[in-house]
Design brief:
With about 230 residues, the chain is mostly helical. It folds into two domains: about 10-95; about 130-215, no CATH class. It contains eight helices and two strands; from the N terminus they run H-H-H-H-H-H-E-E-H-H. It has helices at about 10-20, 25-40, 50-120, 130-135, 145-155, 165-170, 185-200, 205-215; strands at about 175, 180. The chain has a two-stranded antiparallel ribbon. Helix 2 packs parallel to helix 3. The two termini are about 100 Å apart.
Amino acid sequence: MSDKKKTCIIYDSWNEVIQNLPDEMAGQLIKGVLGYAFDEEELKTDNPAINAILQMMKSKIDENSAKYQEKVERMDSARKQLKQKTDRNQSEISQKSDNNQDDIKSVSVSESVSESVSDSVNESDNGYPSDTKKRGGNSARFTPPTVAEVRDYCLERNNGIDAEQFVDFYASKGWMVGKNKMKDWRSCVRTWERRDRASPKKDFDSNEYLLGIINGGDIYDGTRSG
């Protein structure tokens, strides 16, 4: 027995044997049983009757001790397995936490790169920011320009385009370019600019301009359309 026991099982059959012995022999037998059960001490006696009875009891004590030791070992094994499982779970939780932090960093970097690329793409081919970027960066919303804004832009480019005609023309069309909602009015100004360079200049016909607005704003001078 490797671990010192704190209990000892006394059977009813032992009690009957002990009760039928003389007090002196019964005392020696009890002393021998308890000494062997708790301290593994062998009782030294010359009495063959006590030795025979004690031998029978010792075999039962050894059997019980083996069962007790087996139970202790199972409990130790269960504790070790539980500790290993707990450590493994904690390791997995820690790993998942680290992975989540890496994912958050990756998403942050990705969003930063995406915003940077988006900002670069939104720059026009002449270095001017797109209308959606200038007005808050919401690509889903378009705010029609004022006549003053168009005039200032046309003066910067020195293209000779009439800002009021430009605004009136697209306002009559609901700020549509073909079948699509306008996204960048500056781009449309530059388109008019290129068409003016490519088409022969002619005097503005106010009747033709008004007729174009009445007919849906498709044309106003025979050359410009949405």
